[in-house]
Amino acid sequence: MNTDRDEQVREYPFRAPGPLEPAEEWAPLRKGCPVAHVRLPSGDQAVLLTRYDDVRQVLSDPRFTHNLSAEGAARTTANEAGGVFERQEASMLTDADRHQRWRRMIMKSFTVKHISAMQQRIEAMADQLIDDMVKQGPPLDLASALGFPLPVWVICELLGIPGVDRDKLAYWSNTMLSVTQYGQQEIDAAQAEFKAYLTAHIVAKRANPGDDLLSELLAAGDEGQGLSDMELLLTAQGLLVAGHETTSNMIGKMVAMLLSDRRRWEQLLADPSLVRTAVEEVLRFDANAGFGLPRFITEDIEVAGQTLPRGTTVICAMASANRDERTFAEAEEMNLARSPNAHLTFGAGPHSCLGQTLARTELQTVLRVLLRRLPTLALAVPTEALSRRAGLLVGGLEQVLVRW
Fold first, then answer.
1. Which fold has domain 9-403?
2. Which domain of life is it from (predicted)?
3. 149: CB partners within 8 A, 6+ apart
């Protein structure tokens, strides 16, 4: 057993040296301190895991929950209900049995077959948005012109939400993902609006069902197999936030990463068959993924030769794990043809992202359409001038200014 322990308490999240660069702390921690003590923005302490095997071990363990409302769990933020992980209602979907029942009910809308059937519609949405970009002309912000609206359209179509106010949706989502960006009063007000909006939508779907996920869940409820009203609300809320926020940010980061070294973009233009593996490598290489996934340890567990006692809050840094030299050859280099590529961007185990097939389809479709429509695409500013979004659990870029 490894008895060498670094008891230094580091402030977390770490600051990165650049918009697309990893935190300088990651590599030294992976090498010499894979179980690191950190202080969160709330002032509470937690343990940070940075190695691939350790992160995968904890995320795959069904005993541990991401519900940080449990007694003794560290808070990510000083706000009483500031983060999406800290809402009391979330416990309804973190109980193992209830969670698996919930996943089984909604997984049919996220199967490869179902998502593949949506692919043509997603491509049409991307083409329409790029038409608008071309009309407007460069330079423009690709994040707001394409990265944000496309996943919103997709997830709203999945949930049967017509003409949602995108700016409101973005604001509501950001408050759910807030670490330091919003105060408690703002968060409470936004969440009340979000809840009221979705409650009214569910009522409307019950009265007038359509061909969408919520209507299917409501129909199952009428047959005595459905979710409670609160579970339906949490499902809609969670899918709207997770289903658009992470993919919206990833589209902007993907384009920035590929254009920051022109050889990458030219490689894809020369061989578009690399789009699938390129998207996987972008997901692995993303150094601006956000806070990481928390887990609350309810039983003693050995990780990296150390015993983590029950009551420990663990932050799994997937973005660091994805650059672990023990798992990935030349981990600090982007290899657009890398295969296999077992990155942990979508988590692992019973709580892995159920929308990962949809996210992959959106990213691959957007990239293919951009390569076809805008082959001369380039960043309109130096890479170092890009600015990271701050104060949220999900990492992103404020703008991705492009020209063509």
1. Cytochrome p450 (1.10.630)
2. Bacteria
3. 129, 166
